[in-house]
Amino acid sequence: MTSIVWDMGGTLFDTYPSIDNAFRELLLEHGVDVEFSEISALTRVSRDHAIETLSERSGIAVSLFEERYERVKQTWEVHPAPLMAGALDVAAACTKSGGKNLVVTHRDRESAQQLLDTTGFIADDMICASDGYPRKPDPTMIQVILSRNDIEARDCVAVGDRGIDMEAALATGVTPYFLVTAGISTTYEGAQPIGSLFELLPHIE
């Protein structure tokens, strides 16, 4: 059997387009034209990194980017970000193999659970940063969720879209798969890059 540790935003859910568009709209409102691809490359590092970089380049206050992000989160309450293609297929294969679908996310529990509920994705367990654990790349959240589900690291894979996901997985001995966004060149030593969640299927026994 093979269990999966899922990252949420940008991995399980396709959250990036809404965020990237919101930041680009804000920039254009202030007469600053930054290519969508540039914004995308920044948000793939982290949202905070994108905000700080774009604020410095444009002169737009960090608080305005953060406010725009909060608006995006509010729209997800009515129109949730879609699941990534292949998420349900891979989750079903995991369950069929006798494994568990485990979610480890930096989101607060309320918004994370709301996303799961509105899309029908069933997580066997979930740990959020708001539960009081250190944030990734610290491996604690992964270690805790494996321990309380009695899962050995060798019987698990992790999938994420950022280096911090890969670092946390490697620190626990879990095999990491790096979900790469088309057109954005990102790699992480020790992690297997995949362009689609469907590529995980052969690895779920």
Sequence of strands across the biggest β-sheet: 3-2-1-4-5-6
Structure classification: alpha/beta
Poorly predicted sequence stretches spanning 5 or more consecutive residues: none
Biggest sheet overview: 6 strands, parallel
Note the run of SSEs as H and E.
Answer: EHHHHHEHEHEHEE
Mean of all residue-level pLDDT scores: 93
Number of continuous helical runs: 8
Tell me the total number of β-strands.
Answer: 6
Shape: globular
Portion of residues within helices: 40-55%
Radius of gyration: 17 Å
Report the end-to-end length measured between terminal Cα atoms: 6 Å
Share of β-strand residues:
5-15%
SSE blueprint and pairings:
Layout: E1 3-6, H1 16-29, H2 36-43, H3 47-58, H4 62-78, H5 87-96, E2 101-105, H6 109-119, E3 125-128, H7 140-148, E4 156-160, H8 163-172, E5 175-179, E6 192-194
Helix pairs in contact: 1-2, 1-4, 2-3
